[in-house]
Write a structure and sequence with these properties.
The protein is built from four helices and no strands. The protein is mainly α.
């Protein structure tokens, strides 16, 4: 991976890496990995307090709504993709 950095950012990153006792590459990799984990975690998990959890579970447990458009789509699919 090649990065184009402003001179001041490059200098700050190199000084921080040296202060941490690791190479600049290792420092950038570690920082980028932490940032990537945070971004991806937002797409894999979420935290709810007990009240929000109860509302969430209630929504999961409620009967599904009949949606005629989906039913027609499923029927059409079944006609087009016959076993």
């Amino acid at each position: 991976m090649n990065l184009r950095l402003a001179e001041e950012a490059d200098d700050r990153i190199r000084r921080a890496a040296a202060a941490s006792g690791v190479s600049t590459s290792a420092f950038v990799e570690r920082a980028a990995s932490v940032a990537a984990d945070k971004v991806l975690a937002d797409r894999r998990e979420f935290v709810l307090d007990s009240e929000a959890w109860d509302r969430f579970v209630a929504e999961l447990d409620r009967p599904a709504k009949d949606l005629p458009e989906l039913r027609r789509g499923r029927e059409l699919r079944d006609r087009l993709i016959a076993p």
